[in-house]
Amino acid sequence: MRTAMSFFRKGALAALFVLLASVASAQLQFDREELVIETQDGKRHAFDVELALTPEQRSQGLMHRESMPPDHGMLFDFDDTRPVSMWMQNTPLPLDMLFIQKDGTISHIHEMAVPFSQAIIDSRGPVSYVLELNGGRADALGITSGDRVISPRIEAGR
After folding, report:
1. Staple 143 to which of 72, 88, 138, 157, CB 3.0 to 4.6 Å?
2. Does domain 29-157 have CATH number 3.30.70.2210?
3. What's this model's pTM, rounded to 2 decimal places?
């Protein structure tokens, strides 16, 4: 009897592990919207972004993504204005993180976040949104702090 019970426990644990692993690796679905970054010299750069709106979506973010088109990104909406910390665990893409105030103004840019790093990337103050773009895009397009992000999501939250 003891051997049968031990076998049952091992089998149940193995099944639970497989179930948890498949749930953890499942990619969530994200709504999309177009947004524009308007630089201080009047240039406009359009992006197709996925929206990370729920705690689950914000937690997953761009983890496990191997590639992303140059004009795509992900906009994290934190529902309120607060200090935000990000990291790159399980994220193979280098990313630029644009920290955005409630009115759409970029307050800080962390360029070329290191893939798979567990280092904390701080917003350096309260923000409402973070936009993640492919690493190096902000510099290549001349996007800097003080530029403005225009999107339906940000306009609705003002």
Report:
1. 138
2. no
3. 0.83
